[in-house]
């Protein structure tokens, strides 16, 4: 008679970190539901909320030393929904308000770039101070902020917003698959990436003075 294998379950290490990933996943999923009903602003803000959960998930894993292979995969799949699929869906809905149907391929282009970016990160060697290529989280926030900026300036109903968003989507897609180093938040204190911090501050102030808060945040995450 075969002995039953004992499986140890630790509530803290096996459940708590994954709950935050599930919150990230749910927020991205709910964002698409709101966008499908025409509530673009709320859907865009939920992508930003998902980014907060994503940050807290990583912070919790590092602070409590709870990192695991399962947790990394959970986080990656949640990011796929919240920062790749949801922003792509949001952008396509806005773009198709005034553009031809074939512009849907711009959303698919962003989608494939985001999937490639996450897959490359999963199989590659993580750098200590920077990310290789624009992180999918930042990309998702930029898309959300561009939509919110258009809404803030009452441009969401005009073709100009759809065109600008399409251009941003293409540019962001290339940045995600590029090998441009993007510093981690913790690395901004170091001498090498300190100029990036100052550049981000200048970009934020410029966006705030010339446009609005949403445009400022989009410029900061783009840098």
Automatic annotation (TrEMBL):
<dbReference type="GO" id="GO:0012505">
    <property type="term" value="C:endomembrane system"/>
</dbReference>
<dbReference type="InterPro" id="IPR043130">
    <property type="entry name" value="CDP-OH_PTrfase_TM_dom"/>
</dbReference>
<protein>
    <recommendedName>
        <fullName>CDP-diacylglycerol--serine O-phosphatidyltransferase</fullName>
        <ecNumber>2.7.8.8</ecNumber>
    </recommendedName>
</protein>
<keyword id="KW-0443">Lipid metabolism</keyword>
<feature type="transmembrane region" description="Helical">
    <location>
        <begin position="196"/>
        <end position="213"/>
    </location>
</feature>
<dbReference type="InterPro" id="IPR004533">
    <property type="entry name" value="CDP-diaglyc--ser_O-PTrfase"/>
</dbReference>
<comment type="similarity">
    <text>Belongs to the CDP-alcohol phosphatidyltransferase class-I family.</text>
</comment>
<keyword id="KW-0444">Lipid biosynthesis</keyword>
<keyword id="KW-0808">Transferase</keyword>
<dbReference type="GO" id="GO:0016020">
    <property type="term" value="C:membrane"/>
</dbReference>
<keyword id="KW-0594">Phospholipid biosynthesis</keyword>
<dbReference type="GO" id="GO:0008654">
    <property type="term" value="P:phospholipid biosynthetic process"/>
</dbReference>
<keyword id="KW-1208">Phospholipid metabolism</keyword>
<keyword id="KW-0812">Transmembrane</keyword>
<dbReference type="GO" id="GO:0003882">
    <property type="term" value="F:CDP-diacylglycerol-serine O-phosphatidyltransferase activity"/>
</dbReference>
<dbReference type="InterPro" id="IPR048254">
    <property type="entry name" value="CDP_ALCOHOL_P_TRANSF_CS"/>
</dbReference>
<keyword id="KW-1133">Transmembrane helix</keyword>
<dbReference type="InterPro" id="IPR050324">
    <property type="entry name" value="CDP-alcohol_PTase-I"/>
</dbReference>
<keyword id="KW-0472">Membrane</keyword>
<feature type="transmembrane region" description="Helical">
    <location>
        <begin position="155"/>
        <end position="175"/>
    </location>
</feature>
<feature type="transmembrane region" description="Helical">
    <location>
        <begin position="12"/>
        <end position="34"/>
    </location>
</feature>
<dbReference type="Pfam" id="PF01066">
    <property type="entry name" value="CDP-OH_P_transf"/>
</dbReference>
<dbReference type="InterPro" id="IPR000462">
    <property type="entry name" value="CDP-OH_P_trans"/>
</dbReference>
<feature type="transmembrane region" description="Helical">
    <location>
        <begin position="77"/>
        <end position="96"/>
    </location>
</feature>
<feature type="transmembrane region" description="Helical">
    <location>
        <begin position="102"/>
        <end position="119"/>
    </location>
</feature>
<feature type="transmembrane region" description="Helical">
    <location>
        <begin position="40"/>
        <end position="56"/>
    </location>
</feature>
